[in-house]
Amino acid sequence: MAQKKLIIEMRLNEYEMRDRNRNVPWTADELARDAAACREAGASIVHFHARTADGAPAFDYESYRDVIQAIRASSDVLIHPTLGGPAHNASASDRLAHVVRLAESNVRPDFVPMDMGTSNVDIFDEAAGRFVTQDQIYFNTTETLRYFAEQLRKLGVKPSLEIWSIPMMRLAKAFHRLGLFDEPLLLSLNLIEGGLITAHPGTAKGLRAHLDFLPENARHEWFVTFFGGNLLNLAGMVIVEGGHIATGIGDYPYPELGQPTNADIARRIAQIAADAGREVATPAEAREMLGLN
Fold this sequence. Notes:
This protein is α/β, with parallel strands linked by helices. The chain has nine helices and twelve strands. Helices cover 36% and strands 17% of the residues.
């Protein structure tokens, strides 16, 4: 029997500046060109954060609308904008406001992320042996997450469940038991290095810990992201285990490859998959696999 196809999601920019990689896209036109190039290289989903022309974060509806419209004008790739806000402790309604307006104005994205728990997000400087900050918390109460789940279902937007640790996986399972998520679940297993210590480390053991707690009683598809590290080093394991890959120069600039574009990374992943006997999914195939039809 043929292996399940690999879905490649490219995480285009996050909040990266261009000091480490000049190819980080910011504007709607840059993001659209990057998305089209990634689609050509084998990706079927793109994730982005709206940015201003000078790279500053943008949280307004118009910025997200312009990016989504530009991407859809140039590619059939599936679209996954961030679910954000001007602060980690912004209200649930403020953080979802741009998604509500996008859906109401017929510029609905395919997914948005839900980080399934509250975390300390202070940076630890390994070299200096100290915390750079000591008071940063990313608030995602159970009440907030329930509001997101209920509203996203009404809007027809699928949540990408961001799993940083086993407790977050357990909360996602509890939400599924309550009937708040539709199958197949989209699980994003997060690995983190580079100063943040809020998720599993970017090692085979860190990934295996996630895999040991995947849902047994719910259809699901799982992706792996690696913020602050080279996911290509774990791509073979992800592919063999039947998962999908979400990476890009927004998560890590890949300096060991020079200054690659997101499309360069997508091509490398597609080649690793081909060598392992897995074809990459088209956007239409990814849509079906993830229950968007």
